[in-house]
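SAMPLE LOG
Freezer: B-3
Tube label: C17
Construct: single chain, 904 aa
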Amino acid sequence: MLQKVIRKYLFALVCVAALIIPGAHAQETTESGEVYPLWPGTQYDPAIPTHQQVLGYAPGEKISSHSDMLRYMEALTQAAPDRMQLHEYARSWEDRKLIYVVIANPENLKNLPALERDMQGLSDPRKTDISKADALIKSLPATVWLGYGVHGDEISSTDAAMMTAYHLLAARNSPEVDQILANVVTFIDPMQNPDGRTRFINHYETSRGLLPDSSRLSVEQNQAWPGGRANHYMFDMNRDWFAMTQPETIGRVEQMQRYLPLVVVDLHEMSGNQSYYFAPPAMPLNPHLAPSQGKSMELIGRNNAKWFDTFGFDYFTREVFDAFYPGYGDGWPTYYGGVSMTYEQGSSRGLVFHREDGTDLHYRDTVRHHFVASLSTAEAAAQNRQELLQDFYNYRKSAIREGQTEKVRSYILPGRRDKAATTKLAGLLTRQGVEVLQADKSFKVCGASYPSDSYIINTAQPAKRLIRTLMDEDVSMNPDFLKEQERRRTKDYPAEIYDVTAWSLPLMYNVESIVCDKTVKENFPRATAALFTPATLSDDKATVAYLAPWGQATSARLLTHALRQGLTVKSNDKAFTAQGKRYPAGSLIFEVLHNPEDLPRRLNSIAQLTGAEIHGVNSSWVTDGPNFGSDNVTRMIAPKVAIVWDEPTSPYSAGNTRFVIERQFDYPVTNIRTEQLRSGDLSRYQVLILPTSWGSYQDSLGKGGAENLKAWVKRGGTLIAMGTALRYVSDPDVGLLSTHRENNYQADEIDDVSPAENGRIKGTLLTSAQDLHQATTPAQESPDYVPGVLVKAKTDGDHWLAAGLAPSLNILVGGSDIYSPLRRDAGHNVVYFQGPDDLLASGYLWEENRRQLAYKPFLMVEAQGRGHVIGFTQDPTTRAYLDGLNISLINAIFRGASHSQPLR
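STRUCTURE (predicted):
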């Protein structure tokens, strides 16, 4: 204890000396007295506070919290206001500040508004000619955006961000820093996911003991469900960039659209047994990347390699982390013209991790590796300032030229299929820098006529490559890469595809998108960034009822708001015509005499909030279809909805589903821990959702849980199972849904070769490599795993669960589960996949899966007593970007509950 006091006293004297002696070395010292090297040989300005001085610990000695990070960044800003600014850009769901800091020399920092203006000018060659661009390229600094900690349990990058900021402000005799400050404006986003990080730190701090535990079996190294990776709603925010569903992403994209940084790095962590990864990326590459971007990735990677060699840090490149999917933090910025990359550090997942090779990985080392990579990247940008600016301008200019000459010249979004989804899609693109026009009159192009209010996206604009990436039905992968994946598959090696192979926004939103080989030359106004258009009642004096056509997100939100206000709502199972207007199945009926006197005011207010279309009628007489009092018209109840939370559910599926219901449709959800289903009283709830699972519901719930669920359903509950949760409800021992998971159809053809009593099997003759492959195929083999494709499905429009659904839907299919259809005497296959020749909408699908998936169900329903079990064979809420499937989920919840018959 006395030695510890003496060390602290001596450290205090050193700090005082550093404040007195200009240019003193200010290397950080840990509590144990160990000197922590920042950048060897560098002297630091004592006027800039160190990590130790502000927070009481050296970098890497503790995992910095959100509050610590804010405190340190604020201290740096106060110490050097002429060289550093701090900006808040959003609040997380749990109300934590998201910030970025800007570090530059005094002149560049003072001219930050001018930098924004000039980068906007350089980004549009239609307004900035070559001579003006040359002047800007000669004078502008390069811009680097360093993003840290998008996954909350990838911990080292945030502390590295703080080290990087300190070093750029305090380093005195550093030619690298001098060059960076002279040529670069550095943006540091130190913690992209504060909610997830806080969850991780809470776990770690409550788990640690006397000393940091490096054992991979320790509680410190094994997070409790759901872990800290995702944000509050369990989103993997490294997949949210173009979907823009989360406030963290929305705020970040808005700021990046202002400055359009030339170099963007997203700093991550990976397995603790790995070293360090940086660009160039692995194959496949997105075909819309420009050659100059690949050249710059190589250049920056070589500079990283130089410094890693200097310090003796191991690294690797190219082997993993491709550049194909545009939803990553290292993907989306490339499509406005930036050079964007992922860096990955082997994670200590605490203060120390024992590796498989017998060595220990310390947190302070992981922090330092990210720190060195950050500075190396900024240095490379400083050394290549003009080239990066020139490449950015050329990228935007060539995009316009390609939009003028390629076959795809424009996209027309008429909004005839789903106006609400079309409006949201147009607003989403606008928020990402795409120029979207909205017709203020009818027009004709490519031999077809389109109505007023249609949206038009001409590709002859600087954002052309982003447009093609997000709007094309399919983005092709390199043929040689695909050939290699097929070769690997013959040997049962996993595919090297890192994420989904399909993400077309028109397909996922299920909206009409017409590709035209001509530019629309009408002088239409720009569309706004609004995601919906507020509406009003068509007639607020109706004497009998107000009717809302079903099938769009706007009418679904009308339903949820009305139920939460206690309004009486009916819904038809079959289409009808009233006062000359056709209303599809599922349309909402608000009868005047069965609702409060201020019904028109309430509906008008909801219409303004939701954009729902509502019409008044003065008679209940219909010219075809069911009358309002028919058995084919159901009163909608306000169900209490619960979702299973905790092991073995997938945090992503549970969180994303909860988000869609709560934040996109404004309806509350109760989270119930899985173990509560074993014997808990579920009678309070009308709907229970089983999300996709990462483990076994059977193991978690046991026989008691199965019996409790079956009894609840038979009393009138609606059970909704998603994705791999169907493995549980279709288990014969559970008996909730009469479908069966299929083997690979080729495996089913294999003869049983079980060993005889003496352990031998029947002799065989192999005459080819194909015979060897067949002989080694397990008799109980699943279909091959699909990384993620969009496939087409058909809807049985006669069933009440299909109300409002389009005749054809696009489903994101991933994994290896394929289910048999329900027999007609058991239930209904409400949505099923199309035939093999028409199945694939976008992406790359193995041939065997294409054939086996054809005509198999996506959405099934089976009555059990007074209730229903509804099964989605694929998760309809994945990443909350499958807007075209939202009505199927809303139907399952609200129409499912209303068609069940609990005691009321």
